[in-house]
Structures are given as structure tokens and as C-alpha cells.
Amino acid sequence: MLANTVHLGFKSIEIWPEQREVEICGDPVVRRIFFTDIQEYHPRLVAKILELEENQRLRKRYYRGACGTKIHHLEKWVNSEAELITARAKALFMKVLDCQDAVVDLSWANVYRTGDYCMPHSHVRSTASVVYCLDPGDEDPEDRQSGRFCFVDPRLKCCCQDQEECMTTPFLPGMPSGTMLIFPSQLVHAVNPYTGKRPRITLSWNINKNALPDAPLPPEAG
After folding, report:
1. Does the pLDDT at position 222 exceed 60?
2. In a domain, 3, yes or no
3. Less Cβ crowding at N or C end of the chain, within 10 Å?
4. 66 and 87 Cβ atoms separated by less than 8 Å
5. Are 132 and 85 in contact (CB under 8 A)?
6. How many domains does the chain have?
7. Got the DSSP string for 121-184?
8. Pick from 112, 101, 94, 87: nearest CA to 193
9. β-strand pairing of 103-112 with 200-208
């Protein structure tokens, strides 16, 4: 079970603010919630991530199409803002899956710079994945889809508007700053190439009802 609040300095912040409702997003298996108290924790959390991005030992960059620069293991950051948003991700998991526990198998931040994107993929070792938008980055008036998260999975009806089980229409849920999205980890998803200059920053968690054996990443990837 989770605590009800997390302390940020001298202030206690509710993990699940009153009157926050989870909504269906495009398909019943995809759910979304918006948090409105983001000024309480976004500035310090963004600053922490950008600080960690400068650390050669902690950051991981695979290639441009692998979600920009990753900083894994939010639980090791010793940061109250990361603790709060992780608690919210776990609370969302428990509400949507109607269960009493949520165990994070892997968590990470993604920092997208100009030209970064994420190839279509699914997540292993996980029941549900949660994505949170800290900063959507700059809008591009010449490319409205720049940096946008999307589902490209033939199992989603909203992706198959021309023919059943034929993925013809990527589904792009709206994800302004403060949006948290949860979906089955096996759904194929991607992020379009980002053309902005300000860093585009998201957080992700792979979550299960119970802990899994072995580590989700090899030691050098931590």
C-alpha cells in the first residue's frame, strides 16, 4: 500500500489529488489522467534530470532512434519529486488494474534533443507501462506531429480505421505537460522525430503486480 502524501521540502503533496479522474483514451485499454499541481514539482524534477544527463556514468544513449538519452532508475536519484511522480504512477497502476500492489520493474527518464525519436517497440517483463510528460518541448508549426507519442498497433481499433487488424492510422493521444498515460506494455508505440530546441522530457515505468526475478537491465545499462 502507498502512503497518502510525499513531502517536498516543508510541503506535503497528495499522491492522488481529490477530483482527479482517470479517463479512457482512444481505446478502453489505454487510460489517461492530467495532474494540475505540476508547478509544485516540475521545475526541480526537470533540473534534476538535466543535471543527471550531464553525468557520463549515469546516462545511457543507445542511438538516435532509441528515445534520446536515458537516465534509468528513478528510485536511486534521492529526489523527492521523483518519489512523488513514481508514487503516482504506481497508484494509477493499482486503480486501473484494481489491485493492492504495484512493483516497478524498471523506470527511466527520456531526454529528447533535436532529431531524436523512438522506433516502434513494446516493453518486455511488464504488465503495464506508464508514461508521464514533464515537458513536451517546442511545437513546430511546420510539423504538428513533431515529438509526439503514438500507438501503432493493429490490436487497437483506433489504429485500424480503414481495415480491421490493419494498422493504417497511428493514434496520437494528447499529452501536454502533466499528462500520465497507462497502457498494456505489449502495445506497439513510438515517438515521432523531435524538431524542437528545448529538451523534450518524459518519464517511464514498467510495472507488475509482483516482483520479477533477475535484473531488467544488464549492469552496464544501469
Report:
1. no
2. no
3. N
4. no
5. yes
6. 1
7. E--SS-SEEEEEEEE-----TT-TTTT-EEE--TTSGGG-SSBTTB--S-B-----TTEEEEEE
8. 112
9. antiparallel
The HSE-up count of residue 93 (CA atoms within 13 Å, CB side) is: 30
**DSSP run (H or E) holding 201:** strand 200-208
Residue-wise pLDDT tens digits, 113-150:
999 999 999 999 999 999 999 999 999 999 999 999 99
Structure confidence at residue 1 (pLDDT)? 57
Query: Cα(9)–Cα(133) distance, rounded to whole angstroms?
Result: 23
Q: Which three cell numbers stand for residue 113?
A: 534533443
- Residue 136: left if φ>0, alpha if ψ -120 to 50, beta else—which one? alpha
The CATH number for 42's domain is 2.60.120.620
- Pairwise CA distance, residues 202 & 179, whole Å: 10
Q: How many whole angstroms separate alpha carbon 28 and alpha carbon 157?
A: 10
Domain of residue 112, residue span? 23-209
What amino acid occupies position 127?
Answer: T
Beta pairing, strands 27-34 & 179-184 = antiparallel
Q: DSSP secondary structure string, 32-44?
A: EEE-S-GGGTHHH
Mean pLDDT of 92-114: 97
Is the entire prediction scored with pTM above 0.85? yes
